[in-house]
Every structure is written in C-alpha cells, then in structure tokens.
Write a structure and sequence with these properties.
The complex is a heterodimer of chains A (165) and B (765). With 165 residues, chain A is α+β, with helices and mostly antiparallel strands. In chain A, 26% of the residues lie in helices and 24% in strands. Among the domains of chain A are: 1-44, no CATH class; 89-135, no CATH class. Chain A contains five helices and eight strands, in the order H-H-H-E-E-E-E-E-H-E-E-E-H. The model of chain B has no long low-confidence stretch (mean pLDDT 95). Chain B is globular and about 80 Å long. In chain B, helix 4 packs antiparallel against helix 10, helix 6 (112-125) packs antiparallel against helix 12 and helix 10 (228-256) packs across helix 11 (258-283). A seven-stranded antiparallel sheet of chain B has the order 2-1-5-4-3-6-7. Chain B is of the alpha+beta class and 765 residues long. Among the domains of chain B are: 627-686, no CATH class; 692-764, no CATH class. The chains are: A alpha+beta (165), B alpha+beta (765). The interface between A and B is large, with 74 and 94 residues. Strand 5 (91-95) of chain A pairs antiparallel with strand 23 (688-689) of chain B.
Chain lengths: 165, 765
C-alpha cells in the first residue's frame, strides 16, 4: 500500500482511523517508505544536518559536513559517532532502591533492586527519556544498535550514502 | 530344529529403500543438505520452474494443501476434551517433505513446525528406515526436547505419507497436554530438577502401524498422566488430523500427478527462503542489534528440594541479532548463563521453535510460511548455557519460563530495524512473560484425582506499538491467536470458582502503554486438598520497554489459607471479587487467614483447601516512548478505565488529574504541560553523566575481587557462569568496565564445572 507523506504524517500523529492503520499494517509494504519517512523527519526537525537513518524515537543518524555520521537528538543535541554507544554520552538516573522503584511501579510489583535496577537514559539537551534498561547491578550498558549504513545504502538501496551537501 | 534355526535367522530380509528413485531416506536428507550447503538454495534450485510456467496451478496446489491443514486442525480439535486444545486451540498440523522440511502449516501453536522437523530428521539420521522401519500407515510420536520439542507436554505425532512404494512426506500434529505426569502436576511443571522427573518421555518412537496405535503405547499413556482421558483424546486428535492431512496430500497428487507434487514441494520451500530474504531486504536495515533479558528462579527457600537445587538463580539472556548484508538473520546467545537444577532449561530445538513463532508474527506474516524461512536464519546457542543445556540429565519441564522472556530481544531488535526503515506501523515494544501460571493438582470438586494448567495465561497484555497502545489482555507470544478460554469451562475442571475477573493496572508505562493484563480471584471449592503454585517473575524485571518506555510491573503472590470467606458468605457480608491495587488490597482488607502476600512469585506447589483464596495476576505488556509524552487525554482514559493507578498517573505520566463529583477523572492539559516542564528540570537535577556513574559502578564491581562486594549471590553467580562459559562475553564484560584481565566473581559455579566435564567427555568420544 502506497503511504504518501501526508498519510505517513497522520499515521505517526495518530490521526488515522483504526481501520486505515490496520489496512497499512496488513498490506504489502511500500518500497518508497524509507525515503518518504526520511523526508518527513527532515521537515520536522529544526536543524539542517542531513538525516541518513532514523535511530529510534527522537534520535537520528545525520551526516556532518566533514563526513562524520553522528547520533543526534531532535532537540539538536549531538551525542557521538554512530558506531559508538550514544548512551555513554547521556545523563542517567538509576532506580536502585525500593523507594525509587515505587515512583514508577505499583507496590509489590516493583521488583527487588538487589536483583534488578531501572536505568533511565536522558538527553542532556531536552531531558527526554530516550531509553530505559532493566538489568541487575553491575551490568554493562547495552549497546542497542550499530547499523551497517554503508551496506544498507550501497548494497541494499544500491545508491551512495548521502553526503552533507 | 529347522524351525528354531529359521526363527533365529541372523540375516534380516532386505527391504527396498523407501526414498525416491530407489534411494534410502537418509541419502535423500544428506543430498538435500549438501545441495543447500553448496548453493545456498533449497535443493540447489536455481529456477522455480513450475511456479514460472504455471503460477495458477502452483498457487492452487499450495491452497489445497494449506486448506487441508487448516481443515484438519479445525475438525480434529473437536475430538479433544481438553480446554487447552479445544477452547484455546493449542494444536497445529504441519506437512513435511520426506526429509522433514516443512512445506505448509495450519494455524495454531506453530512453534512446533520446526521442532517436528527436528524429530523427523532425528529418525532419518538414526536409520529408523531399518529399525523400527518406516512403512505406510505407521504412526510415530516424540516429546523429547533433546530430539525435537520444547518440553514434554508438547506431544508430536508424525505419520509418513507414501505414494505407491515411495515416501512422499510426513503429516505432523502437536497438542499441548494439560498434565504430563511429571513430578509435580500440570503441563509446565516447576518441580522437576532432572529430566527423569519431567513426566511421560517418548523419544521419537513408533507407536502404531496399520493406522492403529500399539496397545502397549495406549497402556503407557493411560498410566502415565494424572489426566488420562485428556491424554487419550488429544492423541486421537493428533492422529485424526494427520490422517486428514494425508488425505489432502493424496487428493492433490491424484489431481496434479506425483511428479508435479514432488516438484512443487521443492520449489515452495525455496520460494519461502527467497521470500524471507526479500522481507529482510525490504523491511530492515543490516547491522548488529543487542538486547538482554533476565528472570529469577527463587528456590533457596524451597525445602522440598535437595540442597544442590535449593538456590536462588538469576537467568541471563544476552541476545545479539545480526542482519547481514547478504540478507541472513543471525541469532547469537553467546554469554548466556548456565543450565541449572530446575526445569527452566532449553534445547536448541526449542530455541529455534521460538524464533519461528516470532518470525511468523513479524517478518513472515505472509501465506508461504515454511522451512524456507528457517534456511534464512543462523543460530548460536552455546553448549552448557540454559539455551542448550547439553546435559542428558537436565530438565526442560517448563522450558518456556525463560524462553519466552529471552526472545524479547528479537522483538526489540526488529523494532529498531523496522523504525529505521520507516515501517512505524510494525514497531512493537516487547511482550511480557505469559504468567502467572495457575497450575496444580489434587482432589477436585467431584472427589476425583485431577490436575490442571489454566490457560488464562494466553491472554496477557501485548507490547506497546509505535502508533497505538498495546493490545489489552489478549496476547501470547507463542500462539498468534490469543484466547483465554471460557471461565465456565475452567470451573468445570478446576476446584476453584472465579469470584471475579477484571483489568489490572499493570501495563508498562510509556508514550504508548503496553496492553493491560488482568487478574482473577479464585476461591478453592469443595476440594479437600489441591497443590497449587505461582509461576512468574517477581524479583526481576525480565526486560525493559522501548525508547524510554518502562517495563510492565512484575508479578506478585497473594494467597490466603484458612480464610473467613465462608463466614462472610454465611453472614451476607462483603467479600472481595478482586485484589485491585496491591497497595490498597481488597483481599487484605476483607480477608483474614494465613497470608502469602509478597514478591516470591515462583513456587513449588503448595496445598490449598476448600475456602482458600488465590489471586492470579496476568502480566501487562511493556511500554514505548517517554511517558511524559503521553497525551493527557489518553492518561485520563487510562485512569477512568482502571489501566493506571492514580498515584502513578502523577509520578510517571506527570499529569494534573482530579476526580469530579461522580468519581470520574479529569486531566487538566494546561496544568499537565506546566507540571511536565518542571519535571524535566527535576530530571536534570537528579541525573548524572553516564561516565561519572560508570566510574562509581566500576568500583562496586572491583570490590568483589577483594571479597568486599555487595551484589547478592544469584547476581554474582550469573556473571560468573556467563564469563566461565564464554571467553568472548568475559572479555567484553572486562573491557566495558575496564577490569583486570583476571577479574572474576569469587563464587562457585558447579553446573559450569559439570558442563565442562560433559563436553570434554563428548569430545573424546
């Protein structure tokens, strides 16, 4: 099903009726979707760096004029190069006491902080909660996603990775 | 004398091979595998000639086979009396090539499409063609996870299909038993600590000939479970369905000819492989995706267990998903913790089955679902870990216990990929564990011995979506058709009345919330004793939500024995119909008695009797996105629908909410905006840079090497097991925290030691 930019915008903003959403989910996928999505995201951000890959809610991989591929928040904060774990450059709030866990879970259903802590990763620019981890103490920060951008563009889309210009 | 000599003839009469063109079946399997290894294509096919030449005929053959499979399922399930099969639909039927590769399948519990494939290939590799022989109208059965299954309660029936004197395929059927005769009652027994306690064990055995079950097999079934009627009728369900599938294949061959059928089954699997690869190329982004899941097994207090099994365990599943430039999907569980003396261990067959069931609900939700997709994946399930226990004595009685949470990593990875590609409508936060499990056995309300596993668990909350909230109380990762069954049916077979059932405020919070779970309050009725258990994660969160969404709350236990319920009823006074917010528990408010109200949520069976109460809480799904971005109106709807506690609407969603004179909640959008702005400031004040936090965390870890560490034993043992089973994971762990090259947690890991002995012995052989 062809989903044009206007319909995709409505889909993201939850303005479509449920049966239309269902039809989009059940139909054959639109080969142009990636480009439509990038175009829409590019229009919605306030900065001009070129988005080359969506990277989760609020985050994008952009290409800088010097060719570096950077993880960037829609508030404009830049974390690091895409191969690095952006979480290491974020702010963190760790819930590792019962009292802290009870701020976000019902009593009796909060888990035991000796077994499981909640880590909230925040954007230093806009303080949006970008990721949450639920892990035991001592667990390494999970590096969620390292995209193969060269392989994606050159071998799957069969075109060069976009440059900043 | 001559008669005796004749009866002891050493030379067996030679049988003609049953494979195609005079080949042995094993030779056919080897040829198929060699062709795939050499070409990367199923049976080495370059062109799908039948499909190209006559696409309508090709699709017609598929439709007839698929229709035969679905018809077999929908018809045969009426033979069963088990609510798990009849009401929930925990069965499926499959069609395989002679070598055991799946061609097509029905709807239902399709996790077993690949496990039955493993079982058929096991029989072929072990020359069942010679002994016990594979002949027309034979019946085979398997429920051994080390051969091809998830756990004993999933029983597979396989019927070879012949055309003239050649085997042309296998019909397979699976049902989930309500009890499997294990050490403790039910179908997912938590009591076993070795496979010798897992219940009826049928390791790929011939159980019938001439379309008739062997008498000794029937007797073994009648004596092997606590629910012989369900066992017997389920077996007839599977056999009837397999025979219907066989009929459907024979009809297709009569219409299309045997040559066309043979060509079709090769091409349709290769088409499945190509379709799967195309779906990857169309919908994902190549790269490396990581996620992690955990679960607790709190057995240190279980006095029924021997000392070596009486330990608390934290199970660890680091999942690495790799989508290669070539269009392969690789799953890597390197670094998983070790198997244990409990029944939550897995085999590779079970793990591959789970991959299958999730792929059919994500990337390959198209019509041509078969083993072609399996050919497009690679799995690494390291020996000695819980994913591949490699121990002939290990139990897999409730392999689902961690298999379910561990595959949330697949959902997370795929969702990141789908969003990166722009398919936002497909993005999902992880599903929850399908629990609590209300399971047990004893004397029922009719005075008979009985057992049950209640499948209300097949309707937990779904993960939040990127464009919608999660599905409320209607989802199970292992069955795409979530159905909790009818309460009236469960009340007929369980000596526990339903006092009430309602939505639980346990959805994972987020911009979109997970689907809510639900709770039931069960009232033990006319049973002198029934041993019943809780099964859920109560101490650890199994995983997190996605992109700022919180995990759903954990489970908890609230059971009361020796209650005042009968007195309340006799006096006509208020009694509870639900527990509600455990912070203001209805059951605690109204009911006196001996109370277990805690986070000790996985237990061995414990006795209940007439008048006792049991709270059964089914999980909500995990959240997606920053909760303070949730639309205020949506939070208002959640409050009025009971999907979120008022306290958490304020602290998590940061809304300004108040109740009107009718008790309805109203959220003030403007005040909410102000409140959320202040909350962002609060976040800034209490957060620290990650690298700063890491430096302090590193010191906490290093303290263990000095014998001064504070991590509890199960956490230390989990790390030690993962590091000792995987040099790669150990290296990554030490590198991340910048630890000395010899850093380790100073705790014994006896199951890892045993694994090394077992693997070394296997290597010598």
């Amino acid at each position: 099903m062809r989903v044009d930019k206007s319909m995709l915008s409505d889909l993201i903003d939850e303005r479509l009726p449920r049966d239309t959403v269902r039809a989009i989910q059940s139909s054959f996928k639109d080969p142009a979707r990636f480009d439509t999505y990038i175009e829409l995201l590019q229009e919605r951000v306030t900065w001009t760096d070129r988005i080359i890959l969506p990277f989760g809610e609020h985050l994008y991989v952009v290409v800088k004029p010097d060719g570096r591929r950077i993880v960037k928040c829609d508030c404009g904060h830049e974390f690091c190069e895409v191969e690095q774990n952006w979480k290491l450059e974020a702010l963190i709030n760790v819930r590792d006491t019962e009292e802290q866990l009870l701020e976000v879970f019902p009593r009796m259903m909060q888990g035991d902080p000796r077994w499981s802590q909640i880590r909230e990763y925040l954007c230093p620019g806009c303080m949006t909660q970008l990721e949450v981890e639920a892990v035991p103490p001592g667990y390494p920060v999970v590096h969620d996603f390292v995209p193969d951008i060269d392989g994606f563009y050159q071998e799957w889309l069969r075109r060069p990775v976009p440059t900043a210009s | 004398m001559a008669i005796v000599d004749s009866s002891r003839e050493l030379e067996q009469p030679e049988h003609k091979p049953i494979g195609w063109d005079g080949k042995r079946l094993r030779a056919m399997l080897e040829e198929s595998e060699q062709l795939f290894a050499r070409t990367g294509r199923y049976y080495g096919l370059e062109e799908l000639e039948l499909q190209r030449r006559d696409p309508i005929r090709y699709e017609k053959i598929f439709s007839h086979l698929r229709g035969g499979l679905v018809s077999a399922r929908e018809t045969a399930l009426n033979i069963s009396a088990s609510p798990i099969v009849k009401e929930i639909g925990e069965l499926s039927f499959m069609l395989y090539t002679p070598e055991g590769d799946s061609i097509a399948l029905s709807t239902g519990i399709i996790v077993h499409v690949h496990t039955a494939s493993d079982a058929i290939k096991f029989m072929i590799r072990n020359d069942y063609e010679d002994n016990p022989g594979i002949a027309p109208r034979d019946i085979f059965c398997n429920n051994d996870a080390s051969i091809g299954d998830v756990h004993n309660a999933d029983v597979l029936t396989m019927v070879p299909i012949f055309w003239q004197d050649e085997i042309i395929g296998w019909a397979g059927g699976v049902t989930h038993e309500i009890d499997i005769g294990a050490k403790t009652p039910g179908s997912v027994p938590v009591g076993p600590i070795s496979r010798y306690e897992d219940g009826i064990d049928i390791p790929a055995r011939k159980i019938g000939a001439n379309d008739t079950l062997f008498r000794d097999h029937i007797e073994a079934g009648l004596r092997g479970t606590r629910t012989p009627m369900y066992w017997t009728l389920d077996e007839r369900t599977r056999i009837a369905g397999c025979h219907m599938v066989r009929d459907a294949v024979e009809r297709v061959i009569l219409e299309e000819g045997i040559d066309a059928y043979k060509q079709f089954i090769r091409e349709v699997i290769e088409e499945g492989r190509r379709t799967f690869r195309n779906r990857l190329l169309e919908m994902t982004v190549p790269g490396r995706y990581r996620a992690v899941a955990f679960t607790d097994v709190p057995f240190a207090q279980e006095s029924q267990l021997p000392s070596y099994a009486r330990v608390d365990t934290l199970m660890h599943a680091p999942t690495e998903l790799r989508i290669t430039r070539e269009g392969l999907l690789e799953f890597d569980y390197e670094g998983s913790s070790g198997w244990g003396y409990h029944s939550m261990n897995c085999t590779p067959s079970a793990m591959q089955g789970a991959i299958w069931v999730l792929l059919t609900q994500t990337l390959i939700c198209n019509d041509k679902v078969n083993d072609g997709a399996q050919l497009g994946t690679r799995g690494n399930f390291p020996p000695g870990t819980w994913t591949n226990h490699s121990n002939p004595a290990a139990s897999t009685g409730i392999a689902w216990y961690f298999l379910i949470p561990s595959f949330t990593g697949l959902i997370k990875g795929l969702s990141r990929s789908l969003q990166a590609r722009g398919f936002v409508e497909e993005v999902l936060a992880p599903y929850p564990f399908t629990a609590n499990v209300f399971q047990g056995g004893g004397i029922d309300q009719y005075g008979r011995q009985s057992a049950t596993t209640n499948f209300g668990l097949s309707s937990v909350g779904g993960g939040a979506k990127m464009v919608l909230d999660g599905l409320d109380h209607a989802a199970a990762m292992w069955n795409p058709e979530g159905d909790m069954g009818d309460l009236e049916m469960w009340e007929l077979i369980e000596p526990f009345l339903y006092l009430g059932q309602r939505v639980k405020a346990n959805a994972g919070c987020g911009r979109h919330r997970g689907g809510a779970g639900y709770e039931t309050l069960r009232f033990a009725w006319k049973t002198p004793f029934y041993e019943i258990q809780n099964i859920d994660n109560g101490l650890s969160h199994s995983t997190s939500g996605l992109w700022g969404g919180y995990p759903s709350p954990t489970g908890y236990r609230h059971n009361v024995r020796g209650t005042n319920m009968l007195e309340l009823i006799a006096a006509g006074e208020e009694y509870p119909t639900h527990d509600g917010d455990p912070e203001h528990s209805n059951v605690e408010r109204l009911i006196t008695g001996q109370r277990d109200f805690d986070q000790h949520t996985t237990t061995l069976p414990e006795l209940m009797t007439h008048g006792d109460l049991y709270v059964c809480v089914y999980h909500g799904g995990h959240g997606l996105g920053d909760p303070i971005e949730r639309r205020p109106q949506a939070v208002q709807d959640d409050l009025n629908g009971g999907y979120v506690l008022p306290r958490l609407a304020e602290t998590v969603y940061q809304v300004a909410a108040a109740q009107d004179e009718h008790g309805g909640w109203q959220v003030d959008a403007e005040q909410t905006e102000l409140r959320r702005a202040k909350f962002r400031q609060l976040r800034r004040e209490r957060a620290v840079p990650v690298r700063e936090w890491m430096a302090a965390e590193r010191e906490r870890i290093l303290a263990h090497a000095r014998g001064e560490g504070q991590f509890i034993a199960p956490v230390q043992v989990m790390y030690a097991q993962s590091m000792r089973l995987s040099d790669r994971w150990a290296r990554q762990y030490r590198e991340f925290w910048d630890l000395p090259a010899d850093f380790d947690y100073p705790v014994p890991t006896p199951t890892v030691d045993l694994t090394k002995t077992i693997l070394a012995a296997a290597q010598e052989v």
